[in-house]
Amino acid sequence: MDDVREFTLVPFGGPNDTAVPPLCTRTHSVPGFLFSSGGFAGNLYHDYADVLVPLFASTNHLGGEVQFLLADIKDWWADKFRPLFRQLSRYDVIDVNNDREVHCFPRIIIGSTFHRAMGIDPSRSPGGVTVADFKRLLRRAFRLERAVASRSGAPRRRDRPRLLIISRKSSRRFVNERAMARAAAAARFDVRIAEPDNHTDMPNFARLVNSADVMMGVHGAGLTNMVFLPSRAVLVQVVPFGGLEWLTRVTFKDPARDMDVTYMEYNVSLEESSLRDLYPEDHFYLKHPYDVHKKGWDAIKTVYLDKQNVRLNLTRFTRTLEQARDLLPTP
Questions:
Q1: What range(s) does the Glycosyltransferase 61 catalytic domain occupy (predicted)?
Q2: Neighbour-count burial of 11, counting CB atoms closer than 10 A to its CB (0-12 exposed, 13-18 middle, 19+ buried)
């Protein structure tokens, strides 16, 4: 967390205090809210889990009457989420790292309150807001049209629900992605493949995700885009080989429930994993993944996340899509 700026609170006005506070150059009538986009922000999952969901839970009750003070700002990051900031504040975000004004506020709130990963505890949030309220704010911010998914898909799709496959370039790739798309089309899905990154046009991509009835991808930050799915859509998380159920549960399975998204899991078998091409069949990594876990996060990440791609069994993949279709609401 070396890239998160530290701030020091300096009190004035004590009985023996002779220090004189600096003169205000800008006086605000609303509270200031100080937060950072440093740390792990820039990874989409951490953008939401660490910054945006807690920010919403901490400030939505202010009704826009709050001045955001953003530390460690990255211009591309602030631009990406500006539509969301405009829903929460009536005022332009202040870049506190580079601003030279002396701002005076009636009060300042320092930092958001974190409840759980990608989640909100309504009993602890001002106004009792929930993740469902956060999703409604995103729909307004990015002008998303679809509120509820459908087994027949959107109008004019000829009874084909839309499948969005989240693609990856580096690790955890779908090696047979094109074959998957053909199999899904044969199973009467309207198929789209997309690969979001830090430079993806957020409003356009949000609308693409919102058009989907089923979204599928290997565990990774791209699945965070489930925040844009319509209610009762299906998220299929492909879990890489290696006993990673605990990781996939806390990151996406549990949050999906709060977002009114139906969750499915596709656990990759060793036969579907590229690890079998890297190691002999009796290798420790393949035989004893939970013992690898005991070596710590770096070992887990290196072996099962950074070095693994998947080639889904198309028969099993098609069966999973049929199950996902059955979970979608009828029109």
A1: 130-236
A2: exposed
